[in-house]
Amino acid sequence: MADANGMRRALATLILLAAVLTASLSVGFGLASAELQSHPSVLATRHLRTHARSHRHRRHRRHGHHRKHHRHHARKHRRANARRSSATRASFDCTNVNLIPTSEDLEAIRSATICLVNRERSLHGERPLQVSGRLMRAAQGHSENMVAEDYFSHYGPSGDTPTSRMRAAGYIYSSGVGYEIGENIAWGTLGLSTPKAIVEAWMHSPGHRENILDAHYRDTGMGVVAALPRSFGNGQPGAIYTQDFGALIAG
Questions:
Q1: Kindly report the CA angle at 174 between 173 and 177, in degrees rounded to 5?
Q2: At residue 105, what are phi and psi to the nearest 5 degrees?
Q3: Do the beta carbons of residue 212 and residue 129 sit within 8 Å?
Q4: Measured between alpha carbons, how far apart are the two ends of the chain, in Å?
Q5: Is 77 strand, coil or helix?
Q6: What is this structure's pTM?
Q7: Vertex 128, ends 126 and 133: CA angle to 5°?
Q8: Cα gap 47→223, rounded to integer Å
Q9: What is the pLDDT of residue 157?
Q10: How many helices and strands in the chain, by DSSP H and E?
């Protein structure tokens, strides 16, 4: 009996050693792979919305169509939407969407990102946004400040906000003007820093998507820096984006 117990203990010890060795080999291989292949690309996003205007009232209609009649119209709408989608994609031939940002191509990056956003709006029946030089200044300034001050937020360390930045840039030009504004921000590394990757990430996030497709917005500005705040990205090359949205409502 003693010999049998001793053999069982020895066998258990061998199994434990084999498990530890296997785990060590797996971890070692994983580290080697990470070193050889570099770190995975990283992407992060945030959004914000605010407004100073009267409450919006939406009209709701009740439909009393017969179910069969409704299905017939639904099929027609789907076919029509598919045709419109193809036409919209063809009309918005966005270039440089897979370009990884560098300091030499930021104008092309900004244009590509705005083009992709406007294509999404058109695909969903909304009018394209118009580029505002004042919103461009507000957005670019915020991206540059996030890199310089090492943070990722809609609110700066000195207390600035999207509203204060848009006021400073002259977009919200008077305390008597109504407005509705929004802001999307994102940073990404390597292949996840391209305009295509950033807009796809925004469109898969409900809050960012809502900003992009909001029917009330009329103007936009895009700010991009081909660098990251030093605390982000694990030292990898990347870029940080700010898109500002706005609509002004006269007194």
A1: 105
A2: -125, 25
A3: no
A4: 96
A5: helix
A6: 0.71
A7: 140
A8: 15
A9: 96
A10: 7, 5
CA gap 12, 134 in Å, rounded: 72
- Which amino acid is residue 232, in one-letter code? F
Spatial contact of 223 and 136, defined as CB atoms under 8 Å apart: yes
Angle between helices 206-213 and 195-203 (to 10 degrees): 100
pLDDT, tens digit, 9 for 90 and up, residues 26-63: 222 222 212 222 334 566 676 777 655 433 323 333 33
Q: What is the largest CA-CA distance in the chain?
A: 96
Helix, strand, coil in percent for the chain, rounding step 5? 50, 15, 30
- Rounded to whole angstroms, the Cα distance separating 213 from 158 reads 31
Residues of the chain with pLDDT under 70: 1-44, 46, 50-91, 251
Q: Quick one: pLDDT at residue 240?
A: 97
CA 85/CA 31 separation, integer angstroms:
45
Q: Which amino acid is at 131?
A: V
